[in-house]
């Protein structure tokens, strides 16, 4: 299967300007394959869904793409203000700063993304402080505004996240990541384990924020129905590799790979 990025050169990219590009990305855990030879482009305002069964390499790929896991091979480039940055060639301190301000990651397990012993407002304010904001009143005001934006009660600004429900924690993670207005957001199974109605409302919120903020998003999920709500384009993974890629409607209407066919037919039966 031909993925656009391999054949593209730098000049072509400059003309089209994807926000994120991965080139032949592989990660190995000893002998075990996490992901292998994945190349992709992510375009401004696009939501790219990554689906596949458990162990197919979705989370490994997302961690490599988002700067959290240095890949064994390949490279990840992001575009920022007309400049192309090679994520893993950056100085560690620069990359960390980028992760704290311009790249958002929402994890399935909120404990990975939220500091449970810091108030909700403190969690939201952290990234603003990383950007240099020091004024207590302004930090609080921004946190309050973002609580409202993700439909959390601002009266709970000073509460510890451990008093929040699962759905509220995901909203808090979203606010915490988006407060610095990044262009790139990574979602790792953001609604898994939540009640169906909570899941639906969270997906609605994400869809609205993606549109309002023109976010470019990579979302990993094992659930095709979840991907369908948000994603414009789909990558299907199996055994660490991308086995199919295409626009959401095309993949659903005309799946090519046997695994995708199984995935689509089981979704229709469910
Ligand atoms: N920290 C790790 N150490 C060793 N092997 C790992 C580690 N993390 C993942 N793997 C292995 O890498 C492969 C891909 O795992 P990964 O978690 O990326 O898949 P996944 O599609 O996200 O699965 P799931 O949906 O269950 O999270 C699997 O074989 C897994 O066992």
UniProtKB/TrEMBL annotation:
The keyword Repeat does not apply. GO terms for biological process: organic phosphonate catabolic process. Keywords: ATP-binding, Nucleotide-binding. Gene3D superfamilies: P-loop containing nucleotide triphosphate hydrolases (3.40.50.300). Pfam families: ABC_tran (PF00005). InterPro entries: AAA+_ATPase, ABC_transporter-like_ATP-bd, ABC_transporter-like_CS, P-loop_NTPase, PhnK. SMART domains: AAA. One of its GO terms (molecular function) is ATP binding. This is Putative phosphonate transport system ATP-binding protein.
